[in-house]
Amino acid sequence: MPQLRKDPVVGRWVIISTERGKRPNHNPKKSDSPRPGPCPFCAGNEEVTPPEIAAYRPDGSKPNMPGWTLRVVPNKFPALMIEGELDRRGDGVYDLMNGLGAHEVIIETPKHESNIGSLSEKQFEDVLWAYRDRILDLKKDKRFRYILIFKNQGAEAGATLEHTHSQLIALPIVPSNVIEELKGAMEYYKYKERCIYCDIVRQELEDRGRIVSENDHFLVICPFAPRFPFETWILPKKHSPFFEHASKQEYLDLSRSLRETLIRLNRALNDPPFNYIIHSNPLEEPDNGHYHWHVEIMPKLTLVAGFEWGSGFYINPVTPEDAALSLREVGL
Predict the structure, then answer these.
(1) Domain that holds residue 242
(2) 206 & 311 share domain
(3) How would you class 36 by CB atoms within 10 Å of its CB: exposed for 0-12, middle for 13-18, buried for 19 or more?
(4) How many domains in the chain?
(5) What does pTM read for this prediction?
(6) φ, ψ at 137 (rounded to 5°)
(7) HSE-CB for 150 with a 13 A CA cutoff
(8) Are residues 194 and 256 in the same domain?
(9) Residues 269 and 299: beta-carbon distance below 8 Å
(10) What local confidence, expressed as pLDDT, does residue 260 receive?
């Protein structure tokens, strides 16, 4: 059973999970050796993965068989385990609990695609609906307080399998990074009685210099103080704290914004490794008017080294204004 252990100095929780050490560590882009066995995410290899949790099967095919267009399965090497109880306890000065949670993989296509930018608009939209479906299902479990959805593309971004996929982890605690973001948004709201993200949207629409693209419901920007070169945010124009509460038209517009942004990044930066993360309100938190869900995309173009780890500062060699200009000029 994994464990959650709390750092007694800064209050940060760490997952101790020996199962994660058993993951495959082969990436064809970084090696000339053949793939070790069949790709577990390709159609026809359904028996290699754990039994599916959900799938989109327009032909009405049976579970765990070919015929799907999108498939959700438990992670074979989970960071957290869904069975059991938290069992919060102390060990002298230390606090710990069982590593309870859900860890799922969203396989975005049955074809062996290595880049999500190659998916169609409909496939992108289906990925977002799958995220929503899984959040709505998992939030029924009152043991969970936060659901993190993220994607790693490329070995440098943490992907161990080439076949395009994203992941979901449901947690019994709210992560420290999320708490810090919520605190900052709340402090701004207390001072100005406005959402900081809504104010960012308004200012960026007025300034225009950091905008990459926009549609009826979403604004894509390179943020004012980016940690990484070509870091990009997708912000809903309308205030909303919960990703899973978006409308059908909003998911359609988000799929277009996300797809176009990844295509721009791929073409401008020659298919870079990247991570994207959906930032949403904790499950049981009420809408107090201060938080605004959004997507953050972070290409892996620089190394995070000793100075960054030691200081918390990031050194970015590209201005967001130059990055936005480069991405705007990319043809679609």
Answers:
(1) 180-299+307-328
(2) yes
(3) exposed
(4) 2
(5) 0.93
(6) -75, -45
(7) 16
(8) yes
(9) yes
(10) 96
Among 155, 173, 191, the domain boundary falls at: 173
Which runs of E-coded beta strand occur in 113-257?
146-153, 165-171, 211-214, 218-221, 232-236
Round the CA-based radius of gyration of the chain to a whole number and report it.
20
Known catalytic residue at 279: no
Q: Helices then strands (H, E): number in the chain?
A: 6, 14
DSSP reduced 3-state for 6: strand
Active-site residue (options: 165, 217, 279, 290): 165
Find tokens 């659901």 and name the residue: 147
In this prediction, residue 249 has a pLDDT band, given cuts at 50, 70 and 90, of very high
Q: How far apart are CA 18 and CA 203, in angstroms?
A: 46
User: Quick one: tokens of 170?
Assistant: 């449901």
| Domain finish residue from 119, 146, 173 | 173
Cα–Cα distance for residue pair 289/281, rounded to 1 Å: 11
Residue 246 has phi, psi (to 5 degrees) of -65, 155
Residues 165 and 184 in one domain: no
Query: So what's the pLDDT on residue 28?
Result: 46
pLDDT at 308 over 50: yes
Q: Which residues contact 316 (CB under 8 A, 6 or more apart)?
A: 226, 227, 228, 229, 231, 302
| CATH number of the domain within which 291 lies | 3.30.428.10
